Amino acid sequence: MEPSQPAIALNDLGSEMAEVIKEFLVESNEGLDRFDRDLIALEKDRNSHELLDSIFRAIHTIKGTGGVLGYEKLVSISHLGETVLSRMRDGVVVLSAEIATALLSMADALRNILENIATSGGEGTEDYSQVLRQLTAITQTQTRAVASVPAELSETAPRLGEILVDSRTCNPEDVQAAVRQQEQGDGRLLGEILVDERAVDPVAIAEGLKVQTDHREAASNTIRVDVALLDKVMNLVGELVLARNQVLQFTDRQEDSAFLRTAQRLNLITTELQEGVMKTRMQPIGNVWNKLPRIVRDLSLACGKQVEVQMEGAQTELDKTIIEAIKDPLTHIIRNAVDHGIETPKARLAAGKTREGHLLLHAYHEGGQVNIEVSDDGCGMDFERLKARAVAKGLISSDQASRMGEQELLNLAFAPGVSTAEQVSNISGRGVGMDVVKTNIEKIGGTVDLHSTRGRGTLLKIKIPLTLAIIPALIVTSGGERFAIPQVSLIELVRCEGDEAVRSIENIQGASVYRLRGNLLPLVYLNRELQLASKTASESTNIVVLQAGERQFGLVVDQINDTEEIVVKPLSKQLKSVSCFAGATIMGDGHVALILDVLGLAQMTAVVSQRHEAAAGRQAAKSGDEAAAHDSWLLFRLGASGRLAMPLSLVSRLEEFNLSQVERYAGRDVIQYRDQIMPLIRVAGVLGYAGSAESELLQVIVYSSRGQNVGLVVDEILDIAEQSAVVQQIRPVPILQGAAVLQQRVTDLLDVPALLAAEQLECVTGAQA
Amino acid sequence: MSQRRQLCTFYLEKFLFGVEVEKVQEIIRYQEMTRVPRASAVIAGLINLRGQIVTAIDLRHQLHLAPREGDELPMNVVIRREDGPISLLVDEIGEVVEVDEQSFEPAPDTLQSQGGEFLRGVYKLREQLLLLLDIEKTMMVETRPA
User: Fold this and answer.
1) Given an 8 Å threshold on Cβ–Cβ distance, is B34 in contact with A592?
2) What are the CA-CA distances from residue A545 to residues A480, A489, A581, A634, B46 (Å)?
3) Which of A623 and A400 is assigned the larger pLDDT?
4) How far apart are alpha carbons A67 and A76 in whole angstroms?
5) What does the pLDDT read at residue B47?
6) B143 vs chain A: nearest CA distance in angstroms?
7) Average pLDDT, whole number, for chain A?
8) Residue A422, phi-psi category: left (phi > 0), alpha (psi -120 to 50), beta (remainder)
């Protein structure tokens, strides 16, 4: 006997179908529970139309969805139930205890089938003819079609048998023979028959049954929660994070060790709770991807192409809000790939490729971010056409175009109005395209990278944060108001004192610029842009260097306060038009602070409108890098009087850590930093400076090379010096480059690569690459 | 048969306004606000309502009334909304009034020019007119291009 339907375990189905079926199972089970409840209520309150409608709807939904998914048994049983119920609605049949019993046993039969689907993917072999007979008797419309149902029902494969065959512990023939025995009246269970016939080891049966129970438990181990409730819990956790932050502020002023311990515990628990709640909001990216194959299918038919979509990492989870935000950009990218990327079968054969084009979606976690790659094996980007379009649009001169490298040209694809489509179709190629994709991705703090090889295909790489709900941010003050700047946009902080501010900030045709290591950085004054009260003249200027799309700009603020984890809250729709704010947050003191939308602010002030300048600026930066970079030095103190400097370009960040955060691992001090284990080097110790008393707070210069961070512990960060240094060898120390006069004082210059080599950390950094 | 409904009332200048009681989430006294630069002048700012950020609308401004004088602090009438509460800043809170639908009249045309577009109508109370606020329109803030 051949099973009428291929027996497929849920796990083997495509993720798309599995998701749909899972949802169907959850919904149907809920529907049946409601059915039971309302039917029982209806027995007591027989005239309630509401209850009758409710139970009718429950069955109707199961029948409808079950039909779409091709579960014939389910449909035939629920169809009969529906008929009974509709007679009741018409008043032809009046609910009696017998009818209620028949309906409830119908519900049980449906539950049984649902459970079979959950465990084995098939509807199972149980005989429901008694239920069907009862129902038919009630409707009094015994037709041939209904009577034939039970015969049909017994044709699907056995469920324990499926598991055994799937796990290759048993031959399909043996299972079939056992089933035949059962059909011929053998009252034993399938497993018993198989063991008695010595077809299977009893251990295998036990394992098979365990698999079955596992599946069942998995189905009942999940509950569905209203998103609104989740949002509420998320908000409460946000509140808790704020309260925690407030409590932690007090720890600085408290000596009470019991209090400090409790605060520390609160801190840890809050962090864990926050992570846990975040997880509940996570959804697999497959939920968005599921809609793509259909789009690809329709599109490829429309353009006469053949495209196969492959998906990897559909289980990769992302916050719900991010899933929502990437839906449209992804669809756009897919459309582009099918429309422009993949060639017609004829062209592909001519190019020596398979008729069928391939589109691969790949998602994976990396360093607290999610990467999504969309690649195709199509024709790749037409660089000449891209050049021609960009020149025609006036984005670059033909002279510039001829000097641009491929990667730089690819960046042009993100400029507005550039499309390489030969024909403007109704699918894509209308000039609104990649720039919108890029803007949308950047809005949620992500980045887009394009790689393409002519004739070989295109790869689009999207990096997005896991969540938007709680983010690290820099708090600044301007005009007496506090603002939060998302850390992702932050590049560095520059502080100019007195005369230096006057000297280094220049005016070019009414626009302020700052010379940052040889490059001109356009400046935006937050006070001016937001029409805030100007601060009274002060001796220093604070510049927050920000990345807005391709371009960097400096935001001048009155004061730079601190970095903080902030809980992002959306603005009401009355404020949606104010493009320079991304949301608001509640600070530790309970006041509301606005979160700056860096890209929106940049666009508002027009510092990023001219993208070709950005490209030109990058080129200049490349050539000028070597010469200019070492003109900035970070000065720091070791021991009581050791004055050292290292090139600022090697400094990734400056951090402060509590001594308690330091852990001992593999014979050295390490610290958990940005999801990495960061080794610490106590520079004073290496250079033999008299160890100053270890303070509670460690001043750490973070140096990063090829993705690996190393923390250099120093005693004090002194200053940043902007001047060229004449290096002299006064005393030969291997990890010093020499000495120089910086800010009128003799300063040792630290040779960071040599220090890492001496500390045998070089191999660590090398292995990372 | 006359239907009765309950209105939460408040004052702006000398006028008595009302909104349906079921639309009001709560009434709170003045809260410190964070101004939103570059937003419409109708937006008074953002307040922290037990951890929720609530936009406050300056009702005087929205209804084209004169700005509040001196250092009198407004009250917040927090309106319940599907997409989160919105606060209306008013001068003073009145009583909850039960009104008779028979005393209702649509807003006279003459009012249209002076903030009358935000009114659904007028209840003729014995002592005074009670202006029924059109919440939906009041919440619509003209967006000023930034």
Assistant:
1) yes
2) 21, 9, 18, 17, 28
3) A400
4) 9
5) 94
6) 6
7) 77
8) alpha
